[in-house]
Amino acid sequence: MKLIYTHENKLLVENARNLLQMEGIETVMKNEFSSGAAGDLAPLDTWPELWLVDEIQLEKANALLEKMAEQAEGNDWRCNNCQEVNGAAFEVCWSCGSPA
């Protein structure tokens, strides 16, 4: 396994996991519930981590994550289904799951 993504915001890590999963790339999330240890551990050690199961898919996974990062620089969007405002990094509505 190889660490491919980490961020202090768990929602962004979950978004990355969902994006990769939709493309058939298997990942494992670690430190999912470690934020409660902040103070006892260094802050970086409590960030959620996304690990790639099959390193053969590394190039494809990195390309998808790079695309996600580029999209994050864009504008927020409003869901046509539930009217919730979503960050540019999200391809599906965090509230109802509808695509952008």
UniProtKB/TrEMBL annotation:
Residues 72-100 form the RanBP2-type domain. InterPro entries: DUF2007, Znf_RanBP2, Znf_RanBP2_sf. The keyword Metal-binding applies. Pfam families: DUF2007. One of its GO terms (molecular function) is zinc ion binding. Transmembrane segments: none annotated. Keywords: Metal-binding, Zinc, Zinc-finger. PROSITE patterns: ZF_RANBP2_1, ZF_RANBP2_2. It comes from the Bacteria. This is RanBP2-type domain-containing protein. The lineage of its organism: Bacteria, Pseudomonadati, Pseudomonadota, Gammaproteobacteria, Alteromonadales.
